[in-house]
Each structure stands twice: as structure tokens, then as C-alpha cells.
Amino acid sequence: MKYSIYGVVLMVLAVLAIASGMVVSGKDIRENEMDKALNTAVEQTMEQLNKEGGYEIRDAQELIADFHQSLLLHISSDSDLEVKILTADTEKGVLDVEVRQTYQTLRGTKKEAVCRKTVLLEQYSDKQEYCVVEFLVNGTIYDKYTIYPGGSLSLPPEPKAEGHVFRGWKRMGSQGLALDGMCVEESMSFQAEFL
Q1: End-to-end CA distance of the chain
Q2: Which CATH fold would you assign to the domain 131-194?
Q3: Residue 12 burial class via C-beta count within 10 angstroms: exposed 0-12, middle 13-18, buried 19 and up
Q4: Residue 145 pairs with which residues in a beta bridge?
Q5: Which of 74, 86, 120, 178 would bridge 37 by S-S if both were Cys, CB 3.0 to 4.6 A apart?
């Protein structure tokens, strides 16, 4: 009898733990879905505005309609959505949107999640190529990252070499040492210099 009571209590605790886990994960899933759908819809709408050969978006109302259509294609949950278009300007290439999602939890309480996204068209026109910056130690890549042209160089932590003192990062094909914060205009490779 004693073990039966322990079993029932443990089962009730397990059900409560699972239910609370579902409530928490349900909120995260809805917020992630809304964030991803909003990002995708805004980006697709702005790309369509700039796309050559596609249909032409002539005014803000067409831009808003295109955004709504794209958003609805990416939302699959059974929640209520309230979409606020804060700014829609086809001439300046600006779209600022806030989406408020209202949904019901397993316990029947109403919850709300809000997501906002602002996009400028210039982000999607004239895409720049990245510069690759790599740092080598004895011919092996020690650190590597990409950066837009005109960005600032960020030096990695100093490498260690037994019996040697690190002097600095020497740019391949150059005599000078790299300085933290110097402007990057093209892909660069640096070799560790030791004394």
C-alpha cells in the first residue's frame, strides 16, 4: 500500500513536470516561429522591392500587402496576430513592422509575444563582398574571420611558442606589423613574428 501511494505521488509529480515543460517550450517555440517568420517576410519583401525582372511595387500599400502575404505564408501556429506597420516607404526603402502574437496555453491562459523588425533597402542593394583576414603561426591558420571592406582589424590573442617571444603580426608581402584597429580594405594574411 505504501509503495502504491509513492507511485501515485511520483506519477503526479512527473505529469506536473512534463506539463510545465510543455508550457515553457510552447512559448519559446511560438516566439521563435514568429521571429523567424517576421525576419523572412521582411527580407523577402525588401528583396522583391529591389528585384529586377519581378513585379514592381509602386506604393506603400503594395509593399504592405506583399509583406502581409509573405508573413502569412511563414506562420503556421493557431494564434491571433496583430500586425502594425510603423513605417513603409518605397522611395526611401524602409519597412518597420511590429507583430503581436496572442495565443492560449495548455492551462487556458492567454499569453502574448511581440517582435519588431526594421529593414533598410540599402542592406539588400549593392551587396559588398567580404574581406578574409587570416593569422598564421608557422604556416598553420591560428585565427580567421571575414569583415566588410572598411572595417577595423581585430588582432587575435598572442600565440605562444616555446623559447620565443611574440613580436607581432607581420602582413604577408609587407614589412610593417599589423596594428589593432587598422582599416581593412582587402583580404589579408598575417604571419606571427617571434624573437
Answers
A1: 79
A2: Immunoglobulin-like (2.60.40)
A3: exposed
A4: 133
A5: 74
Prediction pTM value: 0.46
In tens, the pLDDT along 22-64 reads: 555 555 677 777 778 888 887 777 777 666 545 566 777 887 8
Provide the pLDDT confidence category of residue 124 given band limits of 50, 70 and 90: very low
